[in-house]
Amino acid sequence: MAPSGPPAAKAKPEAKAESKPKAKPKAKKEEKDEEEEKTKVAAPDREEFDAKVAKIQEGIEKLQKKQQGFTAKINERSGGKDEFFAKKTELRAQLDELSGKMNELQAQKDEINAATGQKREEGKAMRNDLKDMKKSLGFGSEKEIDDRIAAIEYRMSTTSVSLKEEKDNIKEIQMHKKNRPKVAQVKKMEDNLSTFDPGMSMKEKSNAVYEEMSKYRDAKKKVQEKMTELMEGRKEQLGDLPEIMSQREEISKQIGALIQERNTVRDEFRQAEREFNAYLNEQRKKRQEKVNEERADRQKEYDLGRKQRQLEKLDEQPFVSEMTLIEQSMFFCRSLVTTKSSEKKEEKKDIAHNNKDGEEVLLRKEDREEEYFFAPTKGKKGKAAAKKEAGEASTAAKPIKHNAETFILFDKLKLDAPITTADVPALLEKLEAQLEEYKEKVKVWEEKREQMKQDIMDGKEDEEKKEGEEKKEEVEETKVDE
């Protein structure tokens, strides 16, 4: 009988998996609707906005048509405008030229007046300096100073004076000698003052400038009269055109106000759109957060179920299929070498005969045909040899018939399938060794099972798996960089 492989039934679990935790209660729908209603932002009304803009645009277009009518009237009455502005520009150039020349003459006049005033002040200063100089000297000529010095010296030589008076007289003589050169300076100042021009020549220049300015002033007055005549003629030509232009300007202001109103409406609508889009983004964000929370809850439930399945799996002996396959293979091998008791023959007892020379013993009737040719020569030695040959023939190696399945099963055990019955004993030893190894593994598994369960509940297995994936990613990134 060939081994049939591992059994389909699973081993009975030793412990029950923990029950799943109940899901968290959800918020009531009414409370959620009330909260959303409070924070809800209404979408901006595009139709209302378009209607407002269309109404404002209609008003702008009406005013623009009215403005175009005023512009047409202004253009009709604006004939000769180029000639008017050309003449006006010409007269303005003449006025500017005359004003420039008058400004130049006025600058010359200001310079003359400034020079005249300066001369006047200079003459006044010279007179004051001469007066102060004469007052400080006390003498009008050098002769008067010499006479005074001679008088002092005579008095000192003819009269007896005290020491103090003598010192005073000497000091006075020294002062007069020191001031004697100043007399010549006073005379020079008097000569300069007598020849000084107080600005009378400047007055003639000032009068000449004034006369020339009067000529330009008269010419400018004539040009201004022409300018006034030109402006009055233009005013008569235009008639009520200024009023029309004023009305057109007023309409322009109204159009500007409507444009500003339209821009305000657009800005308000765009702001409402931005607020609504922000509200939509916030709602999408909340929905995404909710989806993430639900996904996280589902992941928790999945992780819990996975842990429970892992715990249930730990309750199953992990080497059942291998050990079953080994046991079935051992049974198959033993069946090849075990002889059935029904096939065994009872050994016949040999009877010892003391025959004399030339005597023979007749075989039993049932044995005569089988031993017909050998009985006369059979003795004790011949019977023993025949028995041995019969034993060897019964234990000789016999070929074993296999099919594809038995080869596959032995290949799973990483063993060679027995070709003859002589290969079976060695194969049985290998199978028993493998069975013992698996029994040791089962023993180790039983010792570590509780700790493995605890590690699964604590999530250590997930952490190790995550660390392994991170290391794998780092290795792949390093390979890419290289």
Automatic annotation (TrEMBL):
It comes from Polarella glacialis (Dinoflagellate). GO terms for cellular component: endoplasmic reticulum; nuclear outer membrane-endoplasmic reticulum membrane network; ribonucleoprotein complex. GO terms for molecular function: mRNA binding. Residues 11-21, 37-49, 107-129, 289-304 have a biased composition (Basic and acidic residues). InterPro entries: Bfr1. Residues 1-49, 104-129, 280-304, 453-482 are annotated as: Disordered. It comes from the Eukaryota. The lineage of its organism: Eukaryota, Sar, Alveolata, Dinophyceae, Suessiales. GO terms for biological process: intracellular mRNA localization. This is Uncharacterized protein.
